[in-house]
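Q: Got a minute? One more chain.
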Amino acid sequence: MVRPDVYGRNVFINCPFSADYQPTFRAILFAVYACFYRPRCALEISDSGQNRLEKIQNIIGQCKFGIHDISFMTLDKNSGLPRFNMSFELGLFLAAKTFGAGRQKEKVALVLDHSGYRYQKALSDISGQDISFHKGKPEAAINVVRNWLDTCQGGKYSLHGGHHIWTRYKAFNKELPSASKRLKLKKQQLTYSDICRSMESWLKDNI
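A: Always. Here it is, folded:
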């Protein structure tokens, strides 16, 4: 059972993990931390004994909020097949909200796409959802996530504006190489956990 306060701060991040998406992914992570929430995703657990789908289901069950980026729902250059992982996990999240019990029905989703309304052709069942666009720009992704989380928390407290968070994110990135060096790590080899700890620590020291 997830404690109410933890469940209400957890944000499931459903997005590509490929190298070309990393700038946007890290910007989203930073925005979630900067807004005093906790990002969760499949990268946080490395357990060869646990089924990947089971892992994702468990994390979804522990999160009130979910950020789902379907912008990479395109044909893979190597296989020629479409990438369905993000849309599949979005379906799991919405199913948990619809068919789950108790706090699962409180789930709130943010669906992101690159631009336009291409999702209506590829995933027409979510045409009634409010979709936000980032155009592949990390700064835009930060703004969208910040504004969404600000709406979700219902005016209980004030969040810093998206431009301010973006400015802080650029400062964090500028300091990351030297901070990594002090920890005997290379910036290019940082794991998901390394990045999360670095963001939490930096934000704590730069309130």
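A: Residues 162-182 form the longest helix (21 residues).
Q: Perfect, thanks.
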